Amino acid sequence: xxxxxxxLEPADGVPPVITTDAALTEYVEAVARADGAVAVxxxxxxxxxxxxxxxxxxxxxxxxxxxxxxxxxxxxxxxxSAALGDAEWVLHAANQDLPCLAxxxxxxxxxxxxxxxxxxxxxxxxxxxxxxxxxxGLTLAKEHSAVDWSTRxxxxxxxxxxALDVEVLVELRDAxxxxxxxxxxxxxxxxxxxxxxxxxxPAPRPEPWRRxxxxxxxxxxxxxxxxxxxxxxxxAVGQERDIAPGRVLPDRAIVAAATALPRTEAALAGLREFSxxxxxxxxxxxxxxxxxxxxxxxxxxxARRGPSRDTLPPPRAWADRNPEAAERLRAxxxxxRELAAANTLPQENLLAPDTQRRLSxxxxxxxxxxxxxxxxxxxxxxxxxxxxxxAPLAAAVRDPASVPEPASEPEPAPDA
Length: 416
Hints:
Layout: E1 5-6, E2 17-18, H1 21-33, E3 38-43, E4 56-61, E5 65-69, H2 78-84, E6 88-91, H3 94-103, E7 110-113, H4 114-120, H5 128-136, E8 138-139, H6 156-167, H7 169-183, H8 186-198, H9 221-241, H10 245-248, H11 251-260, H12 265-269, H13 277-281, H14 283-294, H15 318-321, H16 323-342, H17 347-350, H18 353-361, H19 369-378, H20 383-398
Parallel strand pairs: 1-8, 2-5, 3-6, 6-7
Antiparallel strand pairs: 3-4, 4-5
Helix pairs in contact: 1-2, 4-7, 5-7, 9-11, 9-14, 16-18, 16-20, 19-20
């Protein structure tokens, strides 16, 4: 689309931030009188604060206008959620916002995710600004997407940006819905949106300290113990002070201390990565963590390799450990890639890579079409996905050799 129009100001201006129960009640009453879909967004302070709580909630509904709500001043928005009733909530990348919205009592009964709709339509760019420009011919500025939304008071230009994020979401939803209907994908989208709405929170990652950036250089169990102790202490400080852990102590400092194994507090302070004001301010805490790790008995040290959340070995090891499964996985991936291309959508949206692996590693026996349908359903595949892939994948599992070797086999995208 040529010459897109910049969207610079909300149609009704930038509303004042709702910070009182009285103002919230007034907007809730307006929302209850209105009807139609509601645009919803939330702003967090990722990289600044501990956790992923919402620091601003944006709501827009025809007949009620736009509201910018401070969930710190008004932490219970369940009344607003009740007033919206069965309304469809339109969000962009809903999986990012639904958890923090639920924390303040905002839980939808129906969802339309404009990012996910774009993926199902095979759009190459599905960021909000890109998809608004493509569908509506409007440009959105995104320069404030990574600011510290916990700042108070919030700046006027930030509030304008926040209001514009919900200004045309419902119009965008309508345009994408028309595209989905034309493409025969409207039912696919409904199933995906409902699965997204009902998705449980992800399980906590075992031993998250092992994901410290640069940890690949730390392999000795004693060094790993120091890295673990510093990570845990940093996380405690971050939680106590509501600061993103990376701003309390950078990963590079944790890795430097683990690698050096300093034997005194002075030696720890002498590391270049601990020369900053922030690291020095809590040096006693960091040294306490290091000293505790150094004093651990050998039996208390962490293993060189951490536990895996996946019960399956990595696919690169399949050829040695289970050659038949490796061949099935090759065939399954090839069929999914073909079907995704034929239906103009990303492979991972047609069938999750984890589902492909589990079907290949432990297929039903015998691998009839009906058995594969049941296996895919048990693994969480939606009906529309099963209808497209079950029969081709059953054939691929039964006879992998019937699936030709591709010219090149790109690695599928990781699970979200």
